[in-house]
Amino acid sequence: PLRTLGQPNGPHRFSEMSEFDYDAFTQQLKVKLAEDKTPKPSRTLHLEFCGDPFDPLTAINIRHIRAAVRAYAAERAASNEPLLKVETHRVSSFLLPGYCSMPDDWTETHASYIARPGSRDEADVIERAHKVGLLREGWTKDALAKRTHGNATKAHRLVAFVGALRGAAAAEKCVDALQTGHFAEGRAPSDPALLDAAAVAGGTSKFVVRRFLQTRELEKEVAQMADAVDRKVARDKLPALFVDGALAVAGPHFDRDAVLAALRACPEPTGA
Questions:
Q1: Is 240 within 8 Å of 47 (Cβ atoms)?
Q2: Fewer CB within 10 Å, N- or C-terminus of the chain?
Q3: pTM
Q4: Could you tell me if 261 and 254 are in contact, meaning their C-beta atoms sit under 8 angstroms apart?
Q5: What is the pLDDT of residue 101?
Q6: pLDDT tens digits for 31-61?
Q7: Among the ranges given (111-115, 246-250, 266-270), the one the predictor scored with the smallest mean pLDDT
């Protein structure tokens, strides 16, 4: 049986949700996530981007992916090839898996974070961020050094929730908001205000998201995604991009041309 949530504090706190059947919605979401994933013919090319959104190189590499997708679409249009939708789906992965076992409100400084085994060498992050335009979004050396780290499980669940509810494009807007808050403003991944802002960026009511995050819905699914990534890709090869179900580009340092070559190599997507 679904978990029954108590009444919200205050008589009108969630008045915007008065007509929203949360329990019915979560049941439908479970059904949707459990649907048969057998590949079917499609004119959509699916990309699966595996990485930790709070890893700066993952944030940088999605910009290379987006640039490659734009170039690929322009090439196809110029040669009068059939229209092809390219959709990027986020697949959860944790750069430091031990963070998931920490309390939701636990945080640590960036200095403590980079001293942990498994953390990234970020020596060239600013240079790489500059090449994809992230300095215009507030990425500076000082901002990156002052950011707060913590358990990102709720943020991963939020991205999965928005993706299931609103689609892959909305999930990308949600991730962009999370990354701006973390890398440019120094917020912790579990900061409630950051999660609210990311929900709104993804076109989802922050009140619905607050109730969702009070449950443990999608926690198991996020953990299963991360486990599947760990089985397929070594952690030092993350982030990784799968094109039409096949590993195409892996490693912390992507570039647009490598992604574009992978897209060109898959002219007839199966819908995987």
A1: no
A2: N
A3: 0.81
A4: no
A5: 85
A6: 776 665 554 434 788 999 999 999 999 999 9
A7: 266-270
Length of the chain: 272
* Structure token digits, residue 49: 């981007």
Q: How far apart are the first and last CA of the chain?
A: 32
What is the identity of the amino acid at 227?
D
* Parallel/antiparallel/unpaired status of strands 246-250 and 240-243: antiparallel
